[in-house]
Design goal:
The structure is a single chain. By secondary structure, the protein is mostly helical. It has 3 domains: 351 residues, no CATH class; 104 residues, no CATH class; 90 residues. It is 63% helix and 4% strand. It has a 5-stranded mixed beta sheet with strand order 2-1-3-5-4, sandwiched between helices. This is Glycosyltransferase. Keywords: Membrane, Transmembrane, Transmembrane helix.
Length: 575
């Protein structure tokens, strides 16, 4: 058990935590293009659906490429938002509302799951001899606020939570499964509905491996937990979950897909993204190197929580719901990442909801020294980062410091910085708020158990908002294919025929499909070929007895390795 006073569990003012979550969730969603790589691919699938036929809605894919992008829910939601809001705010902006929906739904689910767990008897603080211990509701709300702050403080979420990737829908689905399972402890029907909905979202936004792992881990958590869920929860979640798994295959047959397209859809559900039958050395290496920075400060707090509550006899050790349920789902997500052919940062996002809930239960037991370390580390780190962002922005706009301006010009040739009054004002405001928070934290000694998180969560928000205001034009210039697309369209404006994109990456194909109106398709019979590999073009020509002529070569200004080449293809002359 832990010993706390009611003063230590005073909740954060609602307006502060709401504003922090909304600002963080919306910053960076607007006034930019789809970015290389996964962001562009996700948007490309939504763009194809929005302009496509029934087939495109049943089997999401990129225009001109007969390869499934996987389960359809993320693309359904993105395309629907484009239809609803695209005419008013622009198609790419509307598509990124999908990320906002997933992020906010995940945040709410994490908050409520932690709140319900925090009200349970096994985690309540020790009753004080003279009274004054916190009430269940206040204690639960404080822990829930802590879980949300931990979620917002996760460094790796900043960019990845604002991109149009299927992992955002997976994040939402897993968070809802967590909430539904916890809710089912006291309200079986309601909890079953939410759990079934979460499983449905996961099944319709990921491959079969992750979907089955989430279902299995939920079953294991329920069996292992010392707080048994009732039959009504089991019945409701099972029925809805089975319906969720059946929706997409049913559409394959109701939509009269050809055997070829049915095979493409099945392959996409099984292996998109690509999986291995055994743990991947590449994924293990990526996880061991990148997880610690990505999930800071979530993982150290989660370890402290597990170490304390796992040996607490009063909490039933590992079978207590506040450990058993999130830990089981975290293990499933970790197994999934390890079995990915080659995991990346987008895959790590599904690890965070469960860890955030576990980590929240470390707050009542943190020692003063550790709280001070987390605070000062975050304060120092984010202040330095903010200062660097401001200095580099100043160099872009004014040319001083000269060395910094010269380095930027070399890295981004052709970029013309312009002073953005609105972005500047927003950046000034968010920096002022940061300084006020730092002053509040350093000028007093608050007793609330969430005090060590307000700096970290505010710091990630500060960093992300500054990047998405002062640096947004620069980052957009570096990551977009807009300018390359414009130059390509100019080169072949009057050239008839189609362009073979068989050797083009998915991000490039998605971007060129959006930014141009060129006839792009994976078709070797086209008279033009767009590729980033001259060796592939020459091999194609040699194999098919064709003659190729280089018409155009270009690249994004920030990418020194990528080279896009356009070839004219003609039959080889007979000797």
């Amino acid at each position: 058990m832990v010993k706390l006073t009611a003063a230590a569990t005073t909740s954060i003012p609602r307006i502060i935590i709401f504003a922090l979550t909304i600002v963080y969730g919306l910053a960076g969603l607007f006034a930019r293009d789809p970015w290389k790589n996964e962001d562009a691919i996700g948007f490309g699938g939504m763009w194809t659906l929005r302009h496509g036929q029934a087939l495109d809605w049943i089997v999401p894919h990129l225009a001109g490429r007969d390869i499934s992008l996987g389960s359809p829910f993320p693309y359904w939601l993105g395309a629907t938002l484009m239809d609803l809001f695209g005419p008013f705010i622009g198609m790419s902006n509307a598509a990124r509302l999908y990320s906002a929906v997933c992020f906010f739904a995940s945040a709410v689910a994490i908050w409520y799951a932690t709140y319900l767990l925090g009200r349970r008897q096994e985690v309540q603080p020790m009753a004080l001899a003279v009274g004054g211990q916190p009430g269940r509701k206040n204690y639960g709300m404080t822990l829930a606020d802590g879980a949300l702050l931990i979620f917002l403080a996760c460094v790796g979420l900043a960019q990845r939570a604002h991109e149009t990737t299927p992992m955002m829908a997976q994040l939402m689905g897993i968070s809802i499964v967590l909430y539904g399972t916890v809710r089912g402890l006291d309200k079986p029907w309601q909890g079953g509905l939410w759990t079934g909905l979460g499983i449905t979202i996961v099944a319709l936004s990921s491959n079969l491996t992750l979907s089955l792992l989430i279902v299995s881990s939920t079953i294991i958590a329920v069996i292992a937990s010392n707080a048994k869920l009732r039959f009504r929860w089991t019945l409701t979640s099972t029925v809805l979950g089975l319906i969720g798994f059946a929706i997409w295959p049913a559409l394959w047959y109701l939509g009269n897909l050809t055997p070829e397209w049915r095979h493409i859809a099945e392959e996409g559900w099984r292996n998109m993204p690509e999986m291995r039958a055994t743990p991947s050395i590449e994924s293990l290496g990526f996880l061991s190197v990148n997880f610690w920075a990505y999930a800071w400060p979530v993982w150290p707090l989660a370890i402290i929580s597990l170490a304390h509550w796992g040996r607490a006899k009063e909490a039933g050790q590992w079978r207590a719901p506040h450990l058993c349920i999130p830990l089981s789902l975290f293990t499933a997500c970790l197994i999934y990442v390890l079995f990915r052919l080659e995991a990346n940062e987008h895959d790590l996002i599904i690890l965070i909801p469960s860890l955030s809930i576990i980590a929240a239960f470390s707050l009542p037991i943190l020692k003063r020294d550790l709280i001070s370390f987390i605070d000062w580390f975050a304060m120092f780190s984010f202040t330095i980062i903010a200062l660097a962002i401001w200095i580099i922005w100043l160099a872009k706009v004014t040319g001083y410091p000269e060395t910094t301006a010269a380095n930027l010009a070399r890295l981004l040739p052709g970029f013309q910085a312009q002073f953005d009054y609105i972005g500047f004002i927003v950046a000034i405001i968010i920096t002022g708020i940061w300084l006020a928070i730092v002053r509040w934290r350093t000028s007093r000694a608050p007793k609330e158990i969430w005090r060590c998180l307000i700096i970290s969560a505010s710091g990630t928000t500060l960093m992300w908002v500054l990047l998405m205001t002062l640096w947004l034009p620069t980052i957009n210039y570096a990551k977009t294919y807009r300018y390359v697309s414009d130059r390509l369209e100019t080169i072949i404006a009057n050239t008839p025929g189609c362009i073979d994109t068989s050797n083009l990456g998915s991000a490039q194909l998605a971007s060129f499909s959006y930014f141009t109106k060129l006839p792009l398709r994976d078709d070797p019979s086209c008279n033009l070929m767009l590729t980033h590999s001259s060796l592939e073009a020459k091999a194609y020509a040699s194999l098919n007895k064709k003659k190729i002529e280089l018409l155009w070569e270009d690249r994004r200004a920030s990418d020194r390795d990528e080279r896009l080449r356009l070839y004219q293809i003609t039959p080889a002359s007979k000797e």
